[in-house]
Fold these 4 entries.
Entry 1:
Amino acid sequence: MARDTWYRLDNVGKFYSSQAGSSAQTVFRYAATMQDDVDPAALQHALEKTAGVFPNFNVCLRSGMFWHYLEQSAQVPVVQQENLPICYGLHVHAKSVLFRVSYHAARINLEVSHIVSDGRGSLSFFKALLHAYIEERYGVEGVPAEYDGSDHQKSENSFDKYFERDKAAATRAPKVYRLKGWRDEADPTFFEYHLPAKRVLALARSWDVGVTALVIAVIMCAIRAEMPRRDRSRAIRMDVPVDLRQFFKSTTVKNFFGLAFVSYVPGDEDEPVETVARIVQDQLKTATQA
């Protein structure tokens, strides 16, 4: 059966396509550090194999008469040695491919435009790429496939399939505290923070919260520490992406997530991180209930 040569944008892709070409493009990254320095030839072969399994990643954003759409790129994706700022914009012109694979020393990077996919969908692509690289680089046979769904399942627009408009509810937004200061959207600041996963997981379990709630609580308390006293009656609010595949029978690798809104009002007293984490956990649980 012939493969599609173009794809409709999903709901999230439609929103992010409005940023195409601007300095505010939404691009995210996965990275994996291997035991040895990367073999570029092996990584190139692995990328070609993976792009063949996930054809809806190797696409360009095109403009129709009334709307944008995604078109299969005629070019074979090429591995690059890392030479650009992290999450540098992907859409420059009509033939720009909306994902990038690069390497530096022992690290393999995958950067994806949110026009194409979300974190969970791109993780399937990235795992498949790493599996293919291990097979090619080290001759390891029988590495299990990360994803064996059909092209239709990969490119399904699950928003259209599962969204029920009559069940959508308005969200109440409290008065929020807004971070102030200089920001360069063209060259955003980022940082890496390395944590021992086992200890973080153990701490979250001891507090009876998820790792997501724990991390959010730590960020909220860090913001609280910098808030002026006069603003502590305002809420620290965060929008948390929630993978919707866990609630519906979807295996799409396109965007399929919702946002859970969590907030915390510091008040006059500094509550411990554990208390804030439990508040966040309760809000996440309520927001993700069917």
Entry 2:
Amino acid sequence: MHDQAFPLCVDLDGTLIRSDLLIESTLGLVRRNPLNILRCGVWLLRGKAAMKREIAARSEIDVALLPYDERVVARLRESTRHRVLCTASDRKYAEAVAAHIGVFDEVIASDGEHNLAGANKAHALVERYGERGFDYAGNATPDLKVWRSARRAIVVNASAGLAASAAAVTQVDEVLPREGGGLRVWFKALRLHQWLKNLLVFLPLLAAHKLFQFDAALLSLLAFVAFGLCASGVYVLNDLLDLESDRNHPRKRLRPFAAGTLPLASGLVAAPLLTIAAFVVALAVGAKFALVLFGYWLLTLAYSFRLKRIAMLDTIVLAALYTLRIIAGTAAIHSALSFWLLAFSMFLFLSLALVKRYTELQSLVQQGRDRTDGRGYEVDDLGLIASLGGSSGYLAVLVLALYINSAASEALYRHQQVLWLLCPLLLYWVSRVWFKAHRGLMDDDPIVFALTDYVSRVVLVLCAVVIVAAI
């Protein structure tokens, strides 16, 4: 019998799209209120289909932004067969996706009473088209129950083992191998380049002139690793919570979870594991350091769920998070906190946080948009942010100047007056950062820019030479 006589049934999650709509919609609810996770547990008591319906009723997904597998979409558009979207996702999302793609003749989905997954999906398709009366495209182990009743299988984004299992129960017509994944993609998701920020934990070690004390250096190194693991865990969680807004961003849309190059479920596993590993290392450093890291973790969670959506408060929180790294570095080596260092860092990092927002708003101007997605800023705020950011950077230089002339500086440096050379260097660097931002040449993250920009590295080396000369 000709292929045209057999409908082509296509799964949604993991097959037509490189994502999972149940996870996405649940994350949308949790982002609005973390306590909604408890409501999901209550709904689950009535069955998975009922839970999906309740979540779908309260969570919107922009289906136009979903990461579609273009290989599957192309085959659907080329086909003239009866095409069916058959999914365990709630009907609300399935019909929205079908309308967006515009090629499906029929939609079969979970309806609040029946969860159309595995055996239930197989039963529904056999009831409509008969045993071996349809072809089915799927991607996961539960799809084996459907392939047992299908005439042919199309295996999408699955392991070689699953493709072999599918071949054991039916004829495999085509295998579309999994794209993405791998260490490089995970390194991107964990944002290992952002670990550069955690070099700030070494600053108290340098300020206290303990660089060559082995025990203190080792504790600082462990503190660096702990902060890196903790930050990566938060980055993963933050990316999971910001899927839609990231997909609206010209660069962030390429992040692994937003782009679908990593499965959302793996992120839900990675985030807590990274956090646990961070605190295991932190406890090896010491209880006081672990307490500071816990405070950092709580503040980052508050930032991810709510504070980043409050204009201006978000930048103060970002500055505080950078400063917490310095506080943690001090706790790691059991040193005393320096008022001068904390004041300097707070003003400097507030300036850099405002650079970050300034750069994002400039990007909106280039896109022809007038406000950020859920951030509370408008493009008209550019002038105000530049004024506040530049002022904050110069206040950091003022704090440095006052420190140089203080008794605290005199106690640590034999040639205290040499330190004055730091002021023009820092004035130039702050001015240059804002100059680059004004011209639209700034990286999304000014801290990473500061550590990778050639001129910034030259300024850093010169500052180091000045400090050594002052000692």
Entry 3:
Amino acid sequence: MAAASDLAFDPWDPAFLADPYPAYAELRARGRVLYFERTDQWLVPHHADVSALLRDRRLGRSYRHRFTHEDFGRTAPAPEHEPFHTLNDHGMLDLEPPDHTRIRRLVSKAFTPRTVERLKPYVDKLAGDLVAALAEAGGGDLLTDVAEPLPVAVIAEMLGIPEADRAPLRPWSADICGMYELSPSQETAARAVRASVEFSEYLRELIARRREEPGEDLISGLIAAHDEGDRLTEQEMISTAVLLLNAGHEATVNATVNGWWALFRNPDQLAALRADHSLVPSAVEELMRYDTPLQLFERWVLDDLEIDGTTIPRGAEMAMLFGSANHDGQVFTAPERLDLTRRENPHISFSAGIHYCIGAPLARVELAASMRALLELAPNLSLATEPERKPNFVIRGLQGLSVELN
């Protein structure tokens, strides 16, 4: 059995977190699937396998639609963590068909390409305003001044969350997302539970207000779908709204700062982008690939399967290494090189299969809007100080990105 324990793969090592890509190359050289004892997971490092397994119905984000915890050989979550799991387990990201199909279909109706297109002027104006303020100040923290407020405001606008209520959204999201890291601590779990309770209570009140006074927002749309056919419970509405907020900005925030940090480290590519703004769409795709904001996505094995002669038993957990797949030399030419003109770029940063990111079109609009605004309004933007990585593996980002205008 191939194992990862004797390799450089160490998601808790600051050196690994600073640059995990050499360790991924070791994993790919070692095999197609490797057992990692410290998390009791099977690591999948190759692009072809990750892409195929994300579409394989022998795997699932959940197993509860087919098995009890006991049947599956797993321990039920701690009772004190129940508010987090109630919130998480009713969102479509952690559901399987038929519930996933039903919820995604309802959300898709309110999350159409027309909706995204309608939001584009709002996104462009907000990005421009944020960057203009950064430029007027002579610099600042790209994370807190541009990368965070843009997608948080956009998804809050879509959901119909009033501006005065938006301050806790990002902290709630950060605390909830802490539970998606490998082996979260009790302190992390306690913060996630508290945020789950507070966010759920807020949304329950907002849903009650929208029932009385519906608007053109997504929450009103979900209520209408629920009331017409009784197909969406209140808990499903709450979980869906939280998922859309969390997924709707976490990846965009981290892709923005990871991307600009990569550009500052590759001045030739930054110069090419500044000289030709038509590169923005391909730059967005390449930066998503080059330093992937979501490094790992988990799946449960629902039925025994075999990979390259190794049997993965029912009840096992598989870790799809998105960051490794996006640097697979069998798919990407010179994968360690940042190339904003890369034509063939089948990165899987937005996942694949039935759980493909429903907000991917909006994320692309947001990333392109902030990039264009920075290129146009802050053309001499430069790094002020070396950034620090967040001590996270699964959701990869920076503590901040201090910039200045020359």
Entry 4:
Amino acid sequence: LHLYEEVLNLIKRSGVDVVINFTAGMGGALVLGSADQPMPLDAVGTDMAGATERLLHVKELLPEICTLDCGTFNFGNENYVLANTPAMLKEMAAQVLNCGVKPEIEIFDTGHLWLAEWLHGQGLLSDPVMVQLCMGIRWGAPDDLTTLNALIERLPEDWTFSAFSIGRNQLPYTSVALAAGGHIRVGLEDNLWLDKGLLATNGALVARAVVIAEAMGSRIMSAKDVREKLKLQKRW
């Protein structure tokens, strides 16, 4: 909690108006022992936590947005599973809704979108729904255009979406997401390089994404614009 609070205070002191988005993805790592002996779980890699614990920093600091990883899938290699059960997501969505924070629905595969629609149907996701299509993450949805288009075609018309890929495809995917009618995401979480052999910074990645977007005729929204579009509550 104190690390999130420290970052939030640094942003406040900077005087720069940005939309605050905290992750709530931790607490879902399930690492099995081995293929032949899955139990006991790997104590070092596993960090499973309950819905309330995963959202402590969100409810205490009240960012405008927090992530909600909307499903379970094999992650990376070996025995790692990113575990987000329907019951867990239902409880997390309810708690996020109750504290007035907008969930950023993280979609890693087609079934996750189906689950998001199920949550929305129960009144657990506030409108307008905000979706992040997370492409190219092993072993979720690959970042080819056919898969991306299939996900977009399934989105309800009034949902807002962004799309990104990881590694070398992150910056090229900004143009793909824009051409598909969506918004964009870049950052060091998904890609370390600005150019071949040149390590990136978050600032440099954002600046490059702005160049790409404006060259395509798109306009970069201000924090105020984003709050109005997504009906966000600013509390700082």
